[in-house]
């Protein structure tokens, strides 16, 4: 199993970021790669090779044989970095926040729970002094987002199944995708991502044996965000959840006429499905609901439906009809 | 022979640059050319009219495949017929070394290259071969 570890960072060069990196470097299960996604503004970003403490970390990674990369992120929000990690060709990916320090056994403990039917595993994210789990709080339910996250409290025992995880988790790559419609605050982004895994039939677990310490310093990816971004993301989340829970299938053909015709040769579009397309005439007479691309964008992130991006990422050499089949087998699994 | 030429409406690096010479070489045949945007049924009617159609990597081969219409000649350049084509057609690719490395990138940024296409004479040879095959089939009947 190839495991990528990564950190999305902003405004924490001189506080917790080096601590977070060091904690990943010192994992008992050595990661197969470490990436730092640097989301600092052009005005604030600095060359880590010019900072003494980062040079020590780079040397240490070289000594330990951990390949690393420093990526100037898109500055559109952490979800874009998460999606780059998700599609970077690894089996599993694990991220911690840039104001956290993972215990050395954290990855090892998360990995112990990553059975074939499990899509994501989270650990405890404790802010000292950490409180015990309040009685009555058992797991993270998708329809009880008003309750606190069980990852934030001290508890023991076996791992617990949850319906979503929204703090720092190990996940199975390239099964579901981060919703790039969300604003740069990425509110509900991790909930949507992990709940998508659950809807695909994977279990989500939180194990108390994997511990990360959270220091919540100033800076971070939420700094300088506009208040309306939270409302924007909440609205996207609500629409997405309502659609996802209905279990209706959506097909998105945001390409040329030829692509529509090729897709029709590849796919069996069931009755009652939603078809979002550019050439509605192609679907005349079919018992489907045809909607515009703009209408689909209100329901789902259409990026994962792009067969060209999907095939390009995989350096696909087969016929595009087979790429359509494989893509939709993944999307509708 | 009744030949339908379908050069395509939008110029991209997939567009065949030698249509004028090709049609000149085929002038002894009955030629129709699709220009502009037609309703799909009219395109299908035109394809049903011809003995063979000649096109490029556009929606036409997909339309033909989807509706199971007659085979044609497809002129390829930088796009890969193994990915986007159909073995039922005659796929004329000059050389696989001209294929663009990432087959799935947008075409709008792809530069033109006249060298990547077969010469018009090669297409004429294919037409002659089809004609001979059809005569052979008639004679055999």
- Largest interface (CB < 8 Å): A-B, 18 and 16 residues
Per DSSP, the total helix count of chain B is: 5
Q: Residue share in helices of chain A?
A: 25-40%
Going by CATH, the architecture of chain B would be 3-Layer(aba) Sandwich
Spell out the CATH superfamily of the largest domain in chain A.
Spore Coat Polysaccharide Biosynthesis Protein SpsA, Chain A
Output the CATH topology of the largest domain in chain A: Spore Coat Polysaccharide Biosynthesis Protein SpsA, Chain A
Return the structural class of chain A: alpha/beta
Radius of gyration of chain A, in angstroms, nearest whole number: 21 Å
How many individual domains of chain A? 2
The CATH architecture of the largest domain in chain A would be: Alpha-Beta Complex
State mean pLDDT of chain A (0 to 100 scale): 95
Query: What would the CATH topology of chain B be?
Result: Rossmann fold
Query: What is the mean pLDDT of chain B?
Result: 94
Q: Please, how many helices of chain A?
A: 10
- Overall strand count of chain A: 12
Total strands of chain B: 5
- Described by the principal axes of the CA atoms, the overall outline of chain B is globular
Q: Report on the biggest sheet of chain B.
A: 5 strands, parallel
Q: Which segments of chain B are poorly predicted (pLDDT under 50) over 5 or more consecutive residues?
A: none
Strand content of chain A: 15-25%
Précis, in short:
Helix content of chain A is about 30%, strand content about 20%. Chain A is of the alpha/beta class. With about 140 residues, chain B is of the alpha/beta class.
Describe the structure.
- The complex is a heterodimer of chains A (333) and B (141).
- Chain A is an alpha/beta fold.
- Chain A folds into 2 domains: 3-237, Spore Coat Polysaccharide Biosynthesis Protein SpsA, Chain A (Alpha-Beta Complex); 248-331, no CATH class.
- Helices cover 31% and strands 19% of the residues of chain A.
- Chain A is built from 10 helices and 12 strands.
- Chain A has helices at residues 17-25, 52-64, 78-86, 106-112, 189-199, 228-246, 257-266, 293-299, 307-313, 320-331; strands at 3-9, 33-38, 68-72, 92-95, 100-102, 118-126, 160-161, 169-172, 203-214, 250-253, 274-277, 289-291.
- The longest helix of chain A is centred in the last third of the chain and has 19 residues, at 228-246.
- The model of chain A has no long low-confidence stretch (mean pLDDT 95).
- With 141 residues, chain B is an alpha/beta fold.
- Chain B has one domain (2-140): Rossmann fold (3-Layer(aba) Sandwich).
- Chain B has 5 helices and 5 strands; from the N terminus they run E-H-E-H-E-H-E-H-E-H.
- In chain B, helix 1 (19-25) runs parallel beside helix 5.
- Chain B starts with a strand and ends with a helix.
- The model of chain B has no long low-confidence stretch (mean pLDDT 94).
- The chains are: A alpha/beta (333), B alpha/beta (141).
- Chain A binds chain B through residues 256-259, 261-262, 264-265, 281, 308-309, 311-312, 316-320, and chain B through 40, 58-63, 65-66, 82-84, 102-105.
């Amino acid at each position: 199993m190839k495991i990528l570890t990564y950190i999305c960072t902003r405004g924490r060069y001189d506080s917790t970021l080096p601590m977070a990196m060091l904690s990943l470097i010192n994992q008992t299960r050595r990661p197969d790669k470490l990436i730092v996604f640097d989301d600092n503004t052009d005005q604030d970003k600095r060359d880590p090779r010019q900072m003494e403490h980062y040079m020590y970390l780079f040397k240490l990674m070289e000594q330990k044989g951990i390949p690393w990369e420093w990526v100037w992120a898109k500055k559109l929000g952490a979800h874009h970095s998460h999606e780059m990690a998700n599609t970077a060709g690894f089996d599993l990916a694990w991220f911690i926040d840039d104001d956290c320090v993972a215990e050395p056994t954290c990855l090892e403990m998360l990995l112990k729970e990553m059975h074939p039917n499990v899509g994501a595993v989270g650990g405890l994210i404790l802010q000292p002094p950490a409180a015990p789990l309040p009685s009555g709080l058992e797991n993270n339910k998708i329809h009880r987002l008003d309750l606190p996250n069980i990852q934030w409290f001290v508890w023991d025992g076996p791992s617990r199944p949850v319906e979503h995880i929204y703090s720092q988790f190990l996940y199975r790559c390239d099964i579901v995708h981060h919703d790039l419609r969300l604003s740069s605050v990425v509110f509900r982004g991790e909930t949507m991502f992990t709940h998508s895994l659950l809807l695909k039939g994977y279990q989500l677990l939180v194990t108390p044996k994997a511990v990360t310490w959270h220091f919540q310093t100033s800076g971070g990816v939420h700094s300088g965000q506009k208040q309306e971004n939270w409302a924007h993301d909440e609205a996207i989340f609500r629409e997405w959840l309502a659609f996802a829970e209905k279990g209706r299938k959506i097909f998105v053909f945001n390409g040329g006429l030829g692509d529509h015709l090729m897709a029709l040769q590849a796919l069996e579009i069931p009755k009652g499905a939603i078809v979002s397309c550019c050439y509605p005439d192609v679907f005349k007479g079919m018992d489907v609901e045809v909607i515009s691309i703009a209408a689909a964008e209100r329901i789902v992130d259409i990026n994962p439906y792009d067969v060209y991006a999907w095939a390009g990422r995989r350096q696909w050499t087969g016929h595009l009809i087979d790429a359509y089949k494989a893509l939709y087998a993944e999307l509708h699994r | 022979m009744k030949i339908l030429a379908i050069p395509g409406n939008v110029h991209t690096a997939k567009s065949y640059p030698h249509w004028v010479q090709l049609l000149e070489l085929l002038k002894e045949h009955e030629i129709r050319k699709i220009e502009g945007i037609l309703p799909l049924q009219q395109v299908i009617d035109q394809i049903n009219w011809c003995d063979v159609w000649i096109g490029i990597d556009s929606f036409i081969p997909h339309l033909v495949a989807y509706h199971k219409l007659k085979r044609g000649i497809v002129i390829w350049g930088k796009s890969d017929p193994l990915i986007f084509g159909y073995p039922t057609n005659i796929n004329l690719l000059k050389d696989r070394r001209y294929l663009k490395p990432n087959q799935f990138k947008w075409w709008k940024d792809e530069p033109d290259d006249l060298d990547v296409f077969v010469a018009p004479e090669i297409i004429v040879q294919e037409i002659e071969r089809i004609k001979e095959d059809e005569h052979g089939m008639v004679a055999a009947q």
